[in-house]
Design a protein that fits this description.
This protein has 299 residues and is α+β, with helices and mostly antiparallel strands. It has 13 helices and 10 strands.
Amino acid sequence: MTHIRKTGLGKGLSALLDDSEVVQAPVRQQPVPEGVSPGNISHIKVNEVEVNPFQPRADFDEQALSELAESIRLQGLIQPITVRKAGNRFQLISGERRLRASKLAGIAEIPAYVRTANDQQMLEMALIENIQRENLNAIEVALSFQRMIDECNLKQEELGDRVSKNRSTVTNYIRLLKLPPVIQASIRDNEVSMGHAKAILGLDDVDKQLFVHKEVIDKGLSVRKTEELVREIQHSGKKKDKSGKEEAISFQFQKIQDDLASKFATKVRLKVQGKGKGAIEIPFMSEDDLSRILELLDW
């Protein structure tokens, strides 16, 4: 038999945790135990709480968990977790980091807010709670947004309303999932920022995206430099056909052109005429600039 001890809340916190505006769908799980009502914190046993199967966050910083556990040992858990009743046990809705740290701290009972929720509400609340309160990386946020769209049947406008973000912000996050896996992994591991990723998304070709990503990693390019590189690739990798219209040269030639431009520190144009023929044009701005280029050519 689950032991539940009820503690009254102050008026401000009670209003914050008021359940009346959150629960909108009929409950399919076992009802909340008698005596547990919105606006009250219940103390439940840690070993009776099951991890949320809808938890969008996979990685938890062990050092941060240890620090939180030490804080809980000294001061107790200030912010309650949120659970729902599941048979004779409880299922976590939000607060897995706090639950894990409480276990590390050796706490037997934990303060919890017992909520009523069906599976879809539970998923939505877990995703929103993590997006708003946890330090998720951009890929985790993007995956959470996509799950809310796919599994909660939300449109981007509705999702934006749920998480208090405008539609363009939601769109920018979801677009990250269109990047090659290696770039997504770099975003997840904080090797490149959201700003870098948005710049790289300006290129449609995967090979070009991978090239810019490598340049960012190898040379430590800032977001501004990355944006400049993307613009150069967008505009410099073109030649004109007989009608005067611009047509794109292959990425391989464009990469050679970019490498030469980097070597000579000036804009280089690679003119490809077909059948393996072409020319390399290296402009110079002065006699001194010409001397500098000739030195690089070991002239």
